[in-house]
Design brief:
Number of helices: 10
Strand content: under 5%
Largest sheet: none
Structural class: mainly alpha
Order of helices and strands: HHHHHHHHHH
Low-confidence stretches: 196-207
Number of strands: 0
Number of domains: 1
């Protein structure tokens, strides 16, 4: 049976999430498809985004979009400090703080448990028109959150991907790297870009 475009993009979004990243709005479906096809492992994708965000103010652009959104709600101050610690190379501090921001943004919409988050994201996927950026962003965020919140018992080997429970319970934060910070910044950017009923504020910020 021939794969539909919608099925193909779902597979690309899932592959991208398994590599540890969400679908950023400033990438085309063709670029995401190409990246997932030619990448053999997570480390290659990490290197791609590390290089991408080191050039042409790409990182500053997504920060401005996240910061200027009312979707950030009460997380502005923490987000500002995340930017400062990241730019100071304090990645071990930045990752747990970004997880707090991400959870705060989601909780502000009334979804404070993992399964409720997944249900809420699935509703947004289902309500999005087929073959749209918004649907692809929601799908990639769904698969990313599912991986980030995956149950990994503490008496087992450490996960090979950042795990919310291991980090926030002090089991694995010493392994957080620059790429882990960027994947969480990008996840926030994806969430804000795909978010429903978001209004851009006039808040000004010097990054």
């Amino acid at each position: 049976m021939t794969e539909t475009y919608d099925e193909y993009m779902d597979r690309c979004c899932k592959s991208l999430a398994n590599f540890g990243w969400t679908f950023p709005k400033n990438f085309s479906p063709a670029e995401i498809s190409d990246l997932t096809i030619r990448s053999k492992n997570r480390y290659q994708v990490d290197e791609y985004f590390l290089d991408y965000y080191s050039k042409d103010l790409n990182f500053e652009r997504i920060l401005h979009i996240v910061y200027s959104s009312s979707f950030l709600n009460k997380q502005y101050e923490v987000f500002e400090q995340c930017i400062k610690t990241y730019k100071s190379g304090l990645y071990l501090v930045t990752v747990p703080a970004l997880l707090m921001v991400l959870e705060g943004v989601i909780a502000s919409k009334g979804e404070d448990k993992c399964f409720m988050m997944l249900e809420a994201v699935q509703r947004n996927i289902d309500s999005s028109d087929s073959n749209t950026y918004k649907k692809d962003m929601w799908r990639s965020f769904y698969y990313f959150i599912k991986l980030l919140y995956e149950t990994k018992p503490f008496n087992h080997d450490r996960p090979n991907f950042i795990n919310r429970h291991w980090i926030m319970h002090g089991r694995d934060f010493t392994n957080c790297k620059q790429a882990d910070c960027l994947r969480l910044f990008q996840a926030l950017y994806t969430l804000v870009s795909a978010g429903v009923d978001m209004e851009v504020t006039q808040r000004k910020h010097q990054l």
